[in-house]
Sequence to fold (834 residues):
Amino acid sequence: MLAEIITIGDEILIGQIVDTNSAWLGQQLNPRGFEITRITTIPDRREAILEALELGSKRSDLVIFTGGLGPTKDDITKKTLCEFYNVDLVFDDASFKNVERIFNHIGREITQVNKDQALIPSNSIALLNRYGTAPGIWIENNDAIVVSLPGVPYEMKDIMLQEVFPRIENRSTDIIEHATIVVSGMPESVISEKIEAIELGLSANLKLAYLPNYGVVRLRISARGKKEDALRDQILKVTTEIRSILGQFVIASEDKKIQEIVGEMLINNKQTVSLAESCTGGYVAHLITSTPGSSAYFPGSVVTYSYENKTSVLGVDADLIWNKGAVSQEVVEKMSNAVRLKNNTDYGVAISGIAGPGGGTDEKPVGTVWMSVSSKTETKSKVFHLRGDREQNIERSGNIALEMLRRMILNSELSST
Amino acid sequence: MLAEIITIGDEILIGQIVDTNSAWLGQQLNPRGFEITRITTIPDRREAILEALELGSKRSDLVIFTGGLGPTKDDITKKTLCEFYNVDLVFDDASFKNVERIFNHIGREITQVNKDQALIPSNSIALLNRYGTAPGIWIENNDAIVVSLPGVPYEMKDIMLQEVFPRIENRSTDIIEHATIVVSGMPESVISEKIEAIELGLSANLKLAYLPNYGVVRLRISARGKKEDALRDQILKVTTEIRSILGQFVIASEDKKIQEIVGEMLINNKQTVSLAESCTGGYVAHLITSTPGSSAYFPGSVVTYSYENKTSVLGVDADLIWNKGAVSQEVVEKMSNAVRLKNNTDYGVAISGIAGPGGGTDEKPVGTVWMSVSSKTETKSKVFHLRGDREQNIERSGNIALEMLRRMILNSELSST
Fold:
């Protein structure tokens, strides 16, 4: 079964917002046997929507539109669907009850534009939107299933989960399985040479892809076919071969983020970590606490953004900061040890750098970041010279710090066996 | 001038990564007079790339491809470009020198796949990639300009800034200007009714769009035409009218995030804020410190994730936590005041809740979040019942907490005048 996603919205075309809906839809549709052949973002214009409906219904079994269902004048999806199918808008009682329920809850009066939210194309079924006033629209004919959903992420996701997936379950005979191996410390080109024989020998229903980012390469193996078990066996054979060649450079055999890998190591070892962040400003704590269950190994952390804070909260000597600078090996090592002792954790991580755009000097330009990881028995530190903008420097610093932590945990595991 | 963006990569179609490159390209191309008519993500397949080249060259003046230029077997963009234009790959000396420079720097030997990175289609110009081994590709003929760039964000951005924009500057005669007004505390449908007359009276080259998210609605006014000044005047006239109708519900007259709005208020008032985060785990500190210059009003914060940490770091009475629960009005008020006093800031913000998926009870289900904002003279607190997944609950909590802070700062401004 082929599917495509059409996102309607000038705000995406001009880059005012990033389209995260499509990624979620891809993740959800793939395991249900739908291959996403295309994701297209088009403007809020009649002609663009009509063309997308025409092409989409021809080439795909399922076409999902998001956006353009709101109550305002720039929301033209419903009337354009009517034009395409040559039908009228009709009033849907259940959708109106939902609008009433929501307006009663917030204690506002219903206006005409709110009432119009309950109008749907006469050839469609309304899909209940529990979190908003715009119902989803389901239209099915011989060509394709066309689903039109609001663009607000939590409304779209809830309608997909509650209303759309139950209707499309078991419509596909083929299924698609994926597995991912995460490799650290080896460039994409070297990996590719080492596993060339495996790649050349892959059977036709298998595919291997490389996704490099932040010094880590993800290898994704995809398989397509009829039987889940057979596909899993095929994938397992390939991943086992790759793992035996790449050895310790494989840091995970599932698609996990570095904070998840570190979290599992800490849980297995019954160990804990705390953080003292300066230039990353809470980003590493955010990464760690994004993982459910992180309270088992993360009691808390501090963001010591000012000089005074580094002294008053962590006890870093003010003279040391004055003499060496807040972005220095000495200060960052003090920070990682102080936060570890303060929180009584097994590991302490500290990051201090110049994220930019301001704050750089000739000696320490923007992108200079000192990191330290410490345990009861050792303190490691390293300087990095990053070259991104503020956002990228914060993100890369966070990922590098977690990778440094992973290596220290790994060494402690190796030395204790 | 019409432009379109084609992103090549199965990893986006299956939702393994989110396409952030296209948003950046949209932001950059629009003010340079290029209207993005379409963003399409296609698989790493020859036929899909050929079709995109065919359609793109016909309907747009500029077609930007990202992805598929790496050294591995799934990277087929260059050879497909050759097939489309019926040309061969030729060796480019400057690109090879760049590969050598990078490999010398990291101290690795160059292999054949690395050398092949210097091959480019014979009808193209190589665009220097300072941060990677794959050069960008520039092909220009009577139909269109086709640019092919690596998918790695910081490589793509640097090539655009250094090599592509200088080549396309001044090619467009029309320009496009945007302005955004941020509205808080009024639903989209109410705004739409209040400004209906303005919207109906817009001249043909103006467009108004509504972007609702997290209780805030952004109104975007776009204008297209020849002269920058005239467009700015047109936009200013509309935004002034809208502001006069919506009054105090307008919280910013530029496209700013809530953390930027709060940051500017604090700078203007010479005030400071610190945070005590539990369920948001550093996310709010991350939002605040994402803004350049935030060190002027943010000395630091704590993430008190465990019960013990709330007591040891903030001095919240252990009996109080035991009796009322960590997610309670009493505890969150103590936290916001304790962190404010500890950091000697004008405001303290605290968030304690159950982000999920675990940790919910009948009395306090997942999504229950207590927030408090305090100053020397007042302490406010409020409970919210969110209904998203872990990630959404963290994001919404962070945005709500910053909005609560904004209102307290605003009240202090109003009462001091």
